[in-house]
């Protein structure tokens, strides 16, 4: 079943521009970009939702363990990660003996870069397949563990805790998100630094690409994005010749603003020191910056 809000202005005038394909009891709709641009209500009310693919409470457990997730998001040159880490370290100036935690590390792309600088680095992630892949790179100063960031991990142990690439905002309740922030804060030593890299809600709303098709290694990804008052949503339909039928995954990420993070941090003795707006470490602008890279310090009373 396809749901499109009836409040979209002049929708009847635009629906004939939509191209649809019905297959396997689900419906995929493509909106040509000109139609999107002409319809002023579309960015807010284009909730294209497929009843056959609800967003499961723990959707990230299956999706982050899928090889398609890593193919879609992480087919990047390691030079990109190295450049970001270099800029971050230039700003932080950590001591040579610093202990660092990469929480939500995936397959360890950033953790590996940090370890190559000589720091004592630990990576944690809930996805077992990701941790198995990351462990192939373990060495004396680099270790990986399967761990849920909502639970405590090595209290008062790390000088720096990192959470990169919007590896947050996935949980069902505010309490679970608060538990994750509390876990980060507890892992830090006094005066330790948390670096939180999250999407900028305002920029994401105005620059949302509602429909996208990507081909990688003979696999087609049909992506649909929308949002409501509290979350961003994404449906990923995977067409692989090796599969009997398409796979469908869904994402749901909370629309946390800088003010929301400031409140969550303050409740756990974390104080924001600086905010950057992109991976080049330009100044954060609420309307124009794609990212919120927050630098927070653990300050004891």
Note the main attributes of this structure.
single chain, 301 residues, alpha/beta, Rossmann fold, 2 domains, seven-stranded mixed β-sheet, four-stranded antiparallel β-sheet, 29% helix, 32% strand, disordered N terminus
The CATH architecture name of the largest domain reads 3-Layer(aba) Sandwich
Count of alpha/pi helices? 11
**Strand order of the biggest β-sheet:** 7-6-5-8-9-15-14
- What is the radius of gyration computed over CA atoms, rounded to a whole number of angstroms? 20 Å
Question: Would you tell me the overall average pLDDT?
Answer: 83
Any idea how many domains? Answer: 2
Report the top-level CATH class of the largest domain.
Answer: Alpha Beta
Oligomeric category: single chain
Report low-confidence residues grouped into runs of 5 or more. 1-53
Order of helices and strands: EHEEHHEHHHEHEHEEHEHEEEEHEE
State the helicity in percent bands.
25-40%
CATH superfamily of the largest domain: Vaccinia Virus protein VP39
- Global outline: globular
CA-to-CA gap between the ends? 54 Å
């Amino acid at each position: 079943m396809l749901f499109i809000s009836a409040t979209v202005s002049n929708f009847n005038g635009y629906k004939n521009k939509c191209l649809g394909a019905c297959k396997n009891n689900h419906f995929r709709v493509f909106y040509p970009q000109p139609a999107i641009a002409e319809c002023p209500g579309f960015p807010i009310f284009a909730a294209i939702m497929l009843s056959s693919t609800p967003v499961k409470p723990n959707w990230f457990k299956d999706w982050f363990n899928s090889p398609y997730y890593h193919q879609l998001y992480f087919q990047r040159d390691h030079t990109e990660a190295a450049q970001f880490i270099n800029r971050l370290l230039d700003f932080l100036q950590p001591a040579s003996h610093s202990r660092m935690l990469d929480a939500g590390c995936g397959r360890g792309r950033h953790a590996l870069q940090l370890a190559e600088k000589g720091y004592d680095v630990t990576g944690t992630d809930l996805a077992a397949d990701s941790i198995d892949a990351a462990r192939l790179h373990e060495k004396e100063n680099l270790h990986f563990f399967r761990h849920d960031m909502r639970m405590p991990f090595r209290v008062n142990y790390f000088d720096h805790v990192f959470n990169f690439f919007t590896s947050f905002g996935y949980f069902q309740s505010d309490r679970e998100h608060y538990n994750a922030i509390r876990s980060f804060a507890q892992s830090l030593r006094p005066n330790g630094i948390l670096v939180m890299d999250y999407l900028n809600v305002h920029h994401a709303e105005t620059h949302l690409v509602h429909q996208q098709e990507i081909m990688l290694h003979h696999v087609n990804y049909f992506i649909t994005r929308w949002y409501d008052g509290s979350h961003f949503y994404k449906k990923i339909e995977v067409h692989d010749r090796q599969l009997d039928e398409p796979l469908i995954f869904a994402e749901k990420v909370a629309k946390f603003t800088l003010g929301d993070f400031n409140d969550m941090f303050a409740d756990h003795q974390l104080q924001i020191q600086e905010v950057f707006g992109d991976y080049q470490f330009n100044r954060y602008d609420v309307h124009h910056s794609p990212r919120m890279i927050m630098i927070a310090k653990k300050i004891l009373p």
